[in-house]
Amino acid sequence: MSGFELDVDAARWRRHVAATVEARRGLVPVIKGNGYGLGRSLLAMEAAAVGLGTIAVGTYAEVPGALASFAGDVMVMTPWRPFFTDAVLDDRVIHTLGRISDVADLAALAPSARVLLEGETSMSRHGLDRHELAAAVAALGDLRLEGFAIHLPLQAASGGPGRPGGNVAEAESWAAALETSQVDTTTLYVSHLTPGEVGALAARRPQLDIRPRIGTSLWLGDLGALSVRATVLDSHLVSRGEHIGYRQRAMPRDGTLLVIAGGTSHGIGLEAPKASSGAVQRGKLLAKGGLEAAGLSLSPFTIAGKQRWFAEPPHMQASMIFVPASVTAPEVGDAVDVAVRFTTATFDSINLR
Ligand SMILES: *Cc1c(COP(=O)(O)O)cnc(C)c1O
Q: Where is the Alanine racemase N-terminal domain (predicted)?
């Protein structure tokens, strides 16, 4: 142990990945951003190891790395735009197009490029309106159409008064629009449909080859296989009223000040540590006697079974954590557990065991 580390129970993690690939036929693994905390190149190697032929990345900036670490096809989910200066035109790259003028522009620039057309859903992020499908098809020219894509809201936002039937109804209506259009493909790439929703859609549209694009539930679907641990780098006994840190804050009680690996550069404290500021609020908290009243915020570090308080906002690579005197503090060199948001976490090392 030397820093802010991710330990992966490799056998367990791979079992979940393999089971998901098996259960969700035709899936395209999403490998974008920080690689869900695991890194994009590791994920690309895993995708190849389980026999997947296509991966999906978020942006063109991610394409060169993907082409280098993966031998199959690379789908770019951010639609191609003519002003992109980093768009990679390679025969292994599948572009997404969501505007009629972009279809025409790419057809002129790279006539035989492989493309998906995307339909605009209630996400309102990218995509063609269904009334634009005919014009988009007319603009395709020699572009090779490999499918149609839809990106739906997260399941928790499905249904409700605004969207009766939720994601299934919306996907179904796009499937119907696709069938009656001139769009010459039976492959439908879907984002954020649950297994049940894909099943319902497939049952109603058996002629469609539905391919879910999945990141989180594939890579982070078994969090028990992942543990994040941070090394205690230093430790100081502190007394109530003693001033510490960059901000020279007074310690609220006697206790131990721990310096632990893991700071803002690792993604710690991105949910802005908020000390309650208003006098009334502060008074209420003081009455309750919590450390929050002393202007402290709860950290993601767990010591002796409880989340502990930041003694001050996290530094770039370390955090200062206050542990009250009633708790036995860990020793320097010990590891403590940390709760992280994997999509914003960066580790000093990732250890597959
Ligand atoms: C990120 C993304 C996904 C994968 O999302 P998860 O919630 O990680 O499964 C799928 N489709 C699109 C278009 C995305 O941007």
A: 16-157
